[in-house]
Write a structure and sequence with these properties.
single chain; alpha+beta; Double Stranded RNA Binding Domain; 3 domains; five-stranded mixed β-sheet; three-stranded antiparallel β-sheet; globular
């Protein structure tokens, strides 16, 4: 009889119970839990790879297994959860396990005996990082660039896990620190996490070889959009013709969410009635419920009438959604800085309204040329560019801006932490919803304070646009 345990799923033993199909992504995506209360798990076997199966639990979670007999005993080897582990990856792992079984080798025992760092890293990504970290691909890039290369004299990928010492780790850390000291800290943190997992999984004996290696000193970034700069950011956004960029900036600014969550934002994550955005997975591995302030709700509602895609910010990219807008962001800040220079120059030279509008039109038509022209004029007038320059603002600074504006309004650190999802206590959905009200009030107050500095007159905006035409 099937077991009622969801941690030890019943696997079919009779041919009549076995469903054999050719696994495809479409087939796997369409799988759903069994409707019958007696069948806790449903199972399907791949025709292409012997023993490869996918089990669907009562919660809907789908897991790849290799189910084979080994030394006259039925064995079940977990390969990973779908879609974290893709079909091709599962097939590759299943073939590898089958090859070991054919040689009389227990794959689970082989994993922890004589494992290289390359094998450990693959297990770390499959069993840990891909499940918890939305930016897991950054770890793959760091591994290829710093750890699986002889560039720093030590290729960890070829070494046995137990043979790696603190000397090897120090050599890599020093090598990366020579040209990228801050990034070296990130590489060290990655190695430390991998070895912590190896110790937990009993793959490595002894201490973590990263223990005792001191990180490079870092100066925390404090850049934000100040109350003197926010009017010009808004003005530059009003002149922005790319509505995807414009709306993306508004969402990033008025939610304080990470860029990595805003870019892949989907419509099914937004509840327009309750006015919140549900992020399933954030950088720290938790979900987050983000209140949407009224101004942002209206922006998204207008955008929804224009967008048919599942993504809020669709694009012709591999992912299907908007990617980091480096060039467009640079142009936006050049225009904002130029507009700020124009106001200072108009005050200095006592320009008339028409002269000022002509200057604005020049900047709107060609932001970079306008910036160059008016920065040179400012230099001639002995007006320093540095305190007026907004080009050093990063997209991530918008997140810091929301938090800092809340702090300026004497919002508690607990509420700011909740807004930015800095703290990640495991809590129920009910608790999360109950705690949204003070967060929403604080975010609405910060948004209203920012919008109070939006001083562009509609007539000036229209005249400036007409000049560019």
């Amino acid at each position: 009889m099937p077991s009622n345990s969801t941690t030890q799923p019943y696997t079919p033993r009779h041919k009549s119970e076995i469903s054999r199909v050719v696994f495809t992504k479409k087939f796997l995506d369409a799988l759903s839990p069994a409707s019958s209360a007696s069948a806790q798990w449903t199972w399907h076997y791949d025709i292409q790879v012997p023993g490869l199966a996918i089990g669907v639990g009562p919660s809907g979670i789908k897991s790849f297994y290799l189910i084979r007999k080994f030394k006259r005993q039925s064995r079940r080897f977990l390969l990973g959860k779908y879609p974290t582990v893709e079909l091709n990856t599962a097939r590759t792992m299943a073939r590898d396990f089958n090859a070991k079984l054919a040689q009389g080798i227990d794959p689970k025992a082989a994993v922890t005996s004589g494992m290289t760092f390359a094998m450990l890293f693959k297990k770390f990504m499959t069993d840990y990082s891909y499940r918890r970290n939305r930016t897991a691909e950054m770890s793959v890039k760091a591994y290829a660039r710093y750890l699986a290369t002889d560039r720093y004299g030590v290729n960890l990928g070829n070494k046995l896990v137990d043979d790696i010492t603190d000397t090897h780790i120090q050599a890599i850390f020093n090598g990366v620190s020579n040209h990228a000291p801050i990034h070296a800290n990130r590489v060290l943190a990655l190695m430390r996490c991998i070895f912590n997992r190896a110790i937990t999984w009993k793959i490595r004996t002894g201490d973590n070889p990263c223990k005792g290696i001191e990180r490079n000193k870092e100066k925390s970034r404090e850049r934000r959009v100040s109350r003197f700069e926010i009017p010009y950011l808004f003005r530059s956004l009003e002149y922005e013709l790319n509505d995807t960029l414009r709306d993306f900036i508004y969402v990033a600014l008025f939610t304080g969410a990470r860029r990595g969550n805003v870019l892949p934002m989907r419509w099914d994550e937004i509840d327009f009635d309750a006015c919140y955005w549900q992020i399933d997975l954030t950088k720290n591995g938790t979900s987050q419920t983000v209140p949407l302030v009224p101004t942002l709700v209206e922006i998204l509602k207008v955008r929804r009438t224009k967008i048919a895609s599942e993504w809020v910010f669709p694009a012709n990219s591999k992912s299907g959604h908007y990617m980091e807008p480096k060039k467009a962001w640079k142009t936006l800040l050049e225009r904002a800085t130029a507009l700020r220079l124009i106001d200072r120059l108009a005050e200095h030279y006592k320009w008339s309204d028409s002269e000022k509008l002509i200057a604005i039109g020049n900047v709107v038509a060609a932001p970079l040329t306008g910036f160059t022209t008016y920065s040179e004029m400012a230099e001639e007038a002995r007006i320093s560019l540095k305190p007026l320059d907004m080009r050093d603002i990063r997209v991530h600074d918008l997140r810091r801006t929301m938090g800092s504006w809340q702090a300026d309004l004497n919002t508690s650190l607990a509420i700011i932490g909740r807004t930015l999802n800095h703290q990640s206590p495991q809590s129920t959905k009910v608790y999360a919803r109950l705690s949204l009200d003070p967060v929403r009030q604080a975010m609405e107050a910060a948004t209203a304070a920012m919008l109070a500095h939006k001083t562009v007159r509609q007539d000036s905006l229209q005249m400036g646009m007409e000049i560019t035409k």
